[in-house]
Every structure is written in structure tokens, then in C-alpha cells.
Design brief:
heterodimer; A: 113 residues; mainly beta; six-stranded mixed beta sheet; five-stranded antiparallel beta sheet; globular; B: 115 residues
């Protein structure tokens, strides 16, 4: 069972525009959500996170929104840059397992210049 | 500050063999987790080690085992390799068992191919 879903396998955006990556989850025990970025031949790099008690967290060009009632979160990147092209993973922490993260399958973002 | 380092970067093994993957955690981190990432999927949790003991395990069979050493480095051992074990194996470290909101920091992984 996929507890974290990223339904868009890929997304293509023009440089300077907004990129919106979406993620849905099913487990109400998730208390902390993270976004990771991954380049080929590298491990995932932490990008931004949000606690379940908040609905928004912002860090520079990156903003994560959490809608607990809909069990949905999104990552906004504004403005998008070609260097943002990577695979983006949504992850959720399972409270019952400490630091165990449950990942989505990822979304490939391509930012065109 | 030294990040998470993993060795080797690539490995080719034959079905039925055994493999050991190694990980050095980021300085100051005392918790290590291992994840398996199959092609086209997100990383899947294998297990976590804290203070040299396994304190969480995902849906992986007992032939996946691990160790954590006093310096917080870790090993992942896989016995009786199967073709489906071919994947990228990622090690991640963090401070504490994860009850605080500290993100995991990942290494670049070991690409294992089983033929």
C-alpha cells in the first residue's frame, strides 16, 4: 500500500515561472513532512520540511503547504531555475517508528531555459 | 563538517552471494538508517540503528541485517542475494532517534547489481 503518493511522474516548467509539486498521503500518524531533491548519481538532499501543526513553511524560493484535512502537501518553487531540474521526493515521518521516512515515488522536474 | 559517506559506490554480485555495504555517518550524528531505492521508486526503509542497536525495521526479510559501531558508522549485510536486491542502497544519519525534527542526511548510495 502506497501511503505517500506523488501522482505526477514528471513536470516541465519554463525558467522564471512557478513549479508546483504535489503529494498526497493516507496515514494520519504522519507528523512531519519533508521534501528532498535528488540529482543523478547523488543521494537525496534535504530541501524543506513542515510539522503537522503548521500549514506553511517558507525558505527562500521554496514554500511547502500542508492541508491536513485533505492529507495533501505541495512544494512551490518561485522563480524556477534550470538548476532546480532534478527528481523531487515527498517524504513523511511515521510517529510510531521514530525517524522512519515513507517516500513517494518522486516527480521529475525539468526547468527549461 | 563531514557528510555521510558510503562505500563502495558500485558493486556487482552473483545471485546467492553475500554483500556488505559500509556507511560513515555525518559528524555529530548518532543514528543511522538504511534505505533501498529500486529503479523508478522512492527509497524504502530497511532499518535504523541507535546506540548500536536496531530500533526500527521495515518490511525486509531477515537476510538483511546490520551493525552500528561505537563511532556510529554502520554496515548493511545482505545474504543469499536475489535478482530483486539490485537497487541503490542509501545510508542516512541524524542526531537522536528522530523524535526531534531533524531531517535525515543521505549519502550518495551504493549501486548494487545482482546477476
Amino acid at each position: 500500500d502506497q501511503q505517500v503518493k506523488q501522482n505526477s511522474p514528471s513536470l516541465s516548467v519554463q525558467e522564471g515561472r512557478i513549479s508546483i509539486l504535489n503529494c498526497d498521503y493516507t496515514n494520519s500518524m504522519f507528523d512531519y513532512f519533508l521534501w528532498y531533491k535528488k540529482y543523478p548519481a547523488e543521494g537525496p538532499t534535504f530541501l524543506i520540511s513542515i510539522s503537522s501543526i503548521k500549514d506553511k513553511n517558507e525558505d527562500g524560493r521554496f514554500t511547502v503547504f500542508l492541508n491536513k484535512s485533505a492529507k495533501h502537501l505541495s512544494l512551490h518553487i518561485v522563480p524556477s531555475q534550470p538548476g532546480d531540474s532534478a527528481v523531487y521526493f515527498c517524504a513523511a515521518r511515521d510517529m510510531e517508528y521514530g525517524n522512519k521516512l515513507v517516500f513517494g515515488a518522486g516527480t521529475i522536474l525539468r526547468v527549461k531555459s | 563538517e563531514t557528510g555521510v559517506t558510503q562505500s563502495p559506490t558500485h558493486l556487482i554480485k552473483t545471485r546467492g552471494q553475500q554483500v556488505t555495504l559500509r556507511c560513515s555517518s555525518q559528524s555529530g550524528h548518532n543514528t543511522v538508517s538504511w534505505y533501498q531505492q529500486a529503479l523508478g521508486q522512492g527509497p524504502q526503509f530497511i532499518f535504523q540503528y541507535y546506540r548500536e542497536e536496531e530500533n526500527g525495521r521495515g518490511n525486509f526479510p531477515p537476510r538483511f541485517s546490520g551493525l552500528q559501531f561505537p563511532n556510529y558508522s554502520s554496515e548493511l549485510n545482505v545474504n543469499a542475494l536475489e535478482l530483486d536486491d539490485s537497487a541503490l542502497y542509501l545510508c542516512a544519519s541524524s542526531q537522536g532517534q528522530g523524535r526531534n525534527n531533524s531531517p535525515l542526511h543521505f549519502g550518495n548510495g551504493t549501486r548494487l547489481t545482482v546477476t
